Amino acid sequence: MQARLIESFEIAPEVRHFVFEAPEVSRLDFLPGQFVSFTYPIQEKNITRAYSIASAPSETNRFELCLNLVHEGKFSPHLFEMKPGDEVEMRPPLGQFVLRHPDREAVLIATGTGIAPFRSILRAHLNETSPPFTLLFGVRHEHNLMYRNEFEEMALHYPHFRFLPTLTRPGPGWTGHTGRVQAHLYDAIGERRDLDVFLCGLKAMVDETRNILKGMGFDRKQILYEKYD
To answer: What is the structure's pLDDT at 95?
Structure first.
């Protein structure tokens, strides 16, 4: 199937929010946390890349992505050059990075554009009667906090949602958490071990955090993750 670009706009330095539609279907079915795969011929070779969906499922054929520009990459420069109306070949949504126990509390830990599947999950599952969610989101600078206003509004509207942003390079006016997400696991989790932890970000963060969580007593089945480089 094809994905047609509706619009894209910058939400952080070299990070863009993309809105696509799948014109061959009237409704694109997917589970919050899943991804789509794009394929495009580059230098006479088909290149395929997977991207987490950043929007909640809807009754339409539209979906959203959050992507950063990798200058030396083979695919992201092409996507950043796309104009509204341009199309790219797409495989239907897939993936197991989804809530397996919707009735259980979840802690979501992201760095960078790893925030995308968690935006999808929160927009779909967070409501007045949902279990509690905690989002621990790490970036370098304050201007890298994608979707910050959305998450802050969620925290104001839903007392059982906590948004914990942390910066590794904070400015002089920053009063929140500082350092890597690994340093704030206790703040996010506390003493409880009867919840699920989701990790999404660069391989080094995911691998180190998984090891810390196992040392804290979490079973590997309680730790779901997606990682990229």
So the answer is: 96
